[in-house]
Here is the input.
Amino acid sequence: MQFHPAPNTQLPLFEAFLAQPMITPLQELPPAMREPLPEVFSELSLRGAAGNCLGLLAPILRELSQEQDARWLTLIAPPANVTQTWLRDAGLNRERILILRPRSNQTALDLTREALRLGRSHTVVSWLSPLSASARQQLTAAARDGEAQSLNVRLG
Here is the structure.
């Protein structure tokens, strides 16, 4: 019996992996494997007396008004009882808050969408009710464009 050594044709164990890059660029991954985009649209539904609802909303707005982001906290078409006095009494930083009301030729949705798209606000809080799926998609797209957050408050 004769023994003949096999020719050295076998690759070292890890050489096959080193021949190709280990990291796949994100754009080459299938959509299901890509990291999902962060949520930019939220909705809060409050029921009860207007004063009680605003009392529940005050801590959220206070926190948002104290963001370190240099942009505004913008309130679009808030209820009539959201006044400068209420903002002060609730402990909000009034120097970082912009209150906008739609003009006669625009809707609150249009104004909200524009405020989000412009990106001058870190968060745009709106009081839109009811809000259709299409309107939600429009607000989400505008928030992504402006790198902002959209919070819609439904009072019921």
In short: The mean pLDDT is 86.
